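Budget justification aside, the reviewers requested a transparent look at the raw inputs and outputs of the sequence design task funded under Objective 1. We therefore reproduce one unedited record. The lines immediately below are the structure tokens for a 124-residue chain.
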């Protein structure tokens, strides 16, 4: 059953990459625009849908969880390398902006991490 989780993850990845390249072609940029992000959105959406319908077995969920945890750090590391190379070619301002953004994100991590730690449910 774990293979179904891997197949679902791979399918979402391929569809996400296709979406990213299609978006890039639509706005006249040669390359993938957010394909990994689209893949993760597809995976989350399909996973939620299948859980609600009762179509997702325990072993399949384990396969998705395992490969999802392996997939995200690897892809982020690969895209981070590409972004650094592109920023270096773009000049000092691109590197400066990248450094400032990373520092701002580090400052917001403690704030964002406190959002999900509330004991009482959110009332709408």
């Amino acid at each position: 059953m774990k293979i179904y989780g891997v197949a679902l993850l791979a399918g979402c990845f391929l569809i996400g990459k296709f979406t990213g390249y299609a978006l890039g072609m639509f706005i006249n940029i040669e390359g993938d625009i957010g394909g990994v992000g689209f893949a993760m959105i597809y995976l989350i959406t399909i996973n939620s849908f299948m859980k609600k319908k009762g179509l997702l077995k325990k072993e399949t969920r384990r396969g998705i969880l395992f490969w999802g945890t392996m997939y995200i750090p690897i892809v982020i590391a690969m895209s981070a390398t590409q972004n650094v190379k592109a920023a270096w070619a773009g000049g000092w301002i691109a590197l400066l902006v990248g450094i400032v953004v990373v520092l701002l994100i580090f400052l917001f991590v403690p704030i964002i991490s406190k959002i999900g730690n509330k004991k009482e449910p959110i009332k709408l």
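Residues 2-85 form one domain. The chain has a mean pLDDT of 77. Computational costs for records of this kind are itemized in the attached budget.
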